[in-house]
Amino acid sequence: MTPPRSFSSVVCALLGRHPDLYGFPELNLFKTDTIEELNFARIQRRWPTAMDGLARTLAEIHEGTQNELSVHRARVWINEHMHLGCKEVFNYVLDYVAPKIGVDKSPTTILKVENMERAFHMFPKARFLHLTRHPVTSAKSIAEFLSVIIQTREQVGQMQARVGWSVDPAFLSDEEEDLKGNKPVKVSPLKLWLSAHTKIMNFMERLPLGQGMRIRGEDLLSDLDIYLPQLAEWLGVRTDQEAIDEMKSPEESPYARTGPINAPFGNDPKFLANPKLRSSKVPIPPLKGTFEWAVDTDTAREIQELAQQMGY
Amino acid sequence: MIHPLASPPVPGQVAPGAHSLGTIAQLDIDDVDQIVGALAWFGGQIYFAGIYIDRDVQDFRRIVRFDPQTRGWQTVHTSLAINTKRRSGPANMLDTFFPDNPTEEQSKDKLTDALGVNLAGEQALGTGRNVYCCLFEEQGRLVASLSSPLGGEVVISAAGESWQTTFELVPAKGHTFHQPVPFGGGVVALATGLSQNAPPLLRGEAMDAAGWEEVPVPGFKEQGNELACRAAVFADSLYIGTRNLERGFQLWRLGAIAAQPGDFEQVIASGAYLFSDNQQVAAMVHFGGCLYIVGGKTHSALRAHQVSGFELFRINADRSWDLIVGKPRFSPMGLKVPFSAMGPGFDDPAAVLQCLVVHEGYLCAGFASRGSFKLFVSPDGEQWSEKPVGHFVGELVAALSTPQGLVLLLNPRPQDQPPAKKGDPLPSIALEAWRFTL
To answer: In 3D, which of B180, B166, B291 has the Cα closest to residue B239?
Structure first.
């Protein structure tokens, strides 16, 4: 549970490498109730990568490989199962990876409280990990990410055009003015950080004791030997050294590289380009005096209070 | 004026085993904003020291003693501190008394002579929460340490009858302190923070020392600590818990009073890794060979010694710590899971801690939960259960373990009740005293 660009891809891959766990790419299955609704959102929101993670997962579990053909067949499977609920599809992929426990980190989950509640209702015994990152470094990366999204939309649109795909304008609502998807995105990264973490905190507070935990991404990535065993202990999986060592190779995840042209993403592009762990510690910059200029006074105060709650 | 009358318990409200010790009524104070106090067992009798804070101009300090014969409370000591800056009405009380406008220091001297009371400076506004009251037996004497924004004093009595003021300071001229703790061949006390650049600790040769010197704690302020809030001697060391609003409380250990910088050690940092959700240490007690501390979030509506959403920790002799009540968390020391399996505030995140005492082999935590007082007890520090005490509303002012039972002193006026408006009838001030057997 974390906003974009808060180490979620690498942390999900770290967890997913544990022998008892399976790290999925971004499935986005908590965003809607049914696959058809997810597909509609993909089209309506000019969000061509929405089902990349699901297609890659299906290709991987069905055929043990992710290439254009296996992903194509996965997409055919999705089209044939549009009537299924997202929970059914999630259980379908979980059955494939059983007895391993699935790990999902789709950023769309935290965009709305109802998405988080949907996740809880689908899997009432799931553990929820709130992953945090310093608001300033997070905001810088989110700004970068937003520009990448726009570029990605263009690139994917071009790629899809090359393979003969196009968006049916009938699916676009009146609100969608810019069919090319290159309209400037007016989002304040700091406000996005604040909004996302506020929603997550509100959701986490309602969870039973211990079902949700929070960790600073900087701490985890700087001291893997201290925090990975704790994560494993909390999740109730093996904590032996062999299992912990296994976790330290996120680049070995089948979803830690760019996918085929018909499903290239499903994870953060930056992670896909360089999935290896950095050997250096992740610095935590000071909080005060580093962000206030970018937002109004009230927002700055809220960001500071929330960041201090997280230990920044 | 003190009412010696005991109020009868209300049927159905009080649990079996509860006995009324009457009320401590106060009829001569207008517009009381808060009451902070402490109980002590001395010479086989119960004493209560209280500071009644008037919103405008003065603090009444009063020590009373329970008389089992009359079942009433007798006054054994009173004092008064007056603020020269009113919060409402005339801008400056001195202007009221001395319209010829002499210098402020001259006015204070005149008023001090005329009224025979201690006059404080201009610290009242914005510091109303910093009220501390301690009452304890030390070397066969009863000692009271009373401190508010209007000044601090230490009064000592050999037999509980006559009292000698051994230390008196106004914040403008020096540091006021509270919670004196015998340590290192002398006494260490915590600064109230009412004076500028106050060090966290002060040291005197004895409780009746005329002078108190600063004890430097390297790095204390630099790490965002405002104050040392609680202190206790444990395993031959002095432990101090801090108030740190931005980074979360810290627990420091001091091995010796003549400490070198390296002798200070942080036992817990960053609000036990809940950061600003744990801003202040509110209580410390010895129990079962360990030190138990409570941390939580402070708020302007709470007293200086109160926290909400509180967590309970156990400090072991080897300086490791366990989470007893609170949120599970990751930490540099490993996964911390509450041994009681209970979340903050004994599963009530809005609960406000009001006391932590040991009584009859039980560790007892009293807190306000949704307007009612609740008492949880534990025989081992880990397994906790609620002890029914009946339906008490309002605020717990003080708690004390005595050979005759656990004594609780409650102010039935809700803590968050707004003060009466000018012209409205004044609310009655009558603290209710109860004795419980576990």
So the answer is: B291
Tokens of B18: 């509860």
Looking at residue B419, what is its pLDDT?
A: 60
Structure tokens given for A246: 């296994």
| Nearest by Cα to B190 from B229, B147, B238 | B229
Give the integer Cα–Cα distance in Å for A199 and A252. 32
Q: What pLDDT is stored for residue B113 in this prediction?
A: 56
Q: How far apart are alpha carbons A27 and B395 in whole angstroms?
A: 52
Residue A268 Ramachandran class (φ > 0 left, ψ -120 to 50 alpha, else beta): beta
User: Which stretch of A157-166, B99-108, B143-152, B383-392 has the lowest confidence by average pLDDT?
Assistant: B99-108
The ipTM is 0.90
Alpha helices (H) along A166-268: 189-205, 217-222, 224-235, 241-247
Put simply, the answer to whether B347 touches A309 (Cβ < 8 Å) is: no
Chain B partners within 8 Å of A231 (Cβ): 330
CA distance B111 to B55: 20
* Cβ separation A213–B275 shorter than 8 A: no
Rounded to 10 degrees, the C-alpha dihedral B400/B404/B405/B406 comes to -10
First and final CA of chain B: distance in angstroms? 33
Please indicate whether, in this complex, the C-beta atoms of A308 and B343 are within 8 angstroms of each other.
no
Nearest CA distance, B28 vs chain A (angstrom): 43
Rounded to a whole number of angstroms, the distance from the CA of B193 to the nearest CA of chain A is 23
HEC profile for B148-178? Answer: ECCEEEEEEECCCCCCEEEEEECCCCCCCEE
Contact (CB<8Å) A309/B273: no
- Cα dist. A288→A285, A305, B249 in Å? 9, 11, 19
